[in-house]
Design a protein that fits this description.
Elements lengths: L18 H20 L4 H13 L3 H14 L4 H13 L3 H14 L4 H13 L3 H14 L4 H13 L3 H14 L4 H13 L3 H13 L8 H6 L2
Amino acid sequence: MRKGFFLAFAFCVAAAVNAQDHQALRDSLAVAADRLSFYPDSVDLRLRKAGFNLQLEQWQYAKDEYDYVLKRHPNNIAALYFRAYVNEKLNRLHFAKLDYEGVLSLIPNHFEARLGLSLLSQKMGRTTDALNQINLLVEQHPDSAIAYAARAGIEVERNLYDLAEGDFTEAIIRDGRNVDYILNRAVVRIHLKRKEEAKEDLERLVALGISRYALSEYFSACK
């Protein structure tokens, strides 16, 4: 069975766009850049242009725009948050961490920044910090399925399968049709040798419209 967990926490942009959308984005970017030539100090235009740069995965150009805004408005939440995202894409992990922390110093219960900081800490190998941040996120947002699922993902990476099973269950209670959560719980239950319960999760996925063939590898692991 493939070892893998399918949760993906993308905070701000979809990575794939088709050719037509790509051209539309480039056209919109050109318009924003042209308007900036007339209003170079417009924060709204800078952020709008940076947003198009993000969607086109032009990370350095986006960062330049956020740098410009933050030099003049150091507490701009949008610029801080999205620069953190861009810094991570540029593998400037320490600077991404500082930007997430900057957002949280201004808005301590900012969901996306807390989640981003937790996942970044995990990526940096700071597992204790990652768990501390994700625990705080769950405490601050106890009704969020994403918070529980994110914590479960970190627990899985540390082989804390019992804890992960409980957190995926909490996520499913709050979002019972999310196929990623259900599949991840099935995989965790297989690791825990709770194969009947894992099979129940797989049957639930079939009831939600996932083909039995696509799940055949997991059904086989439940035998």
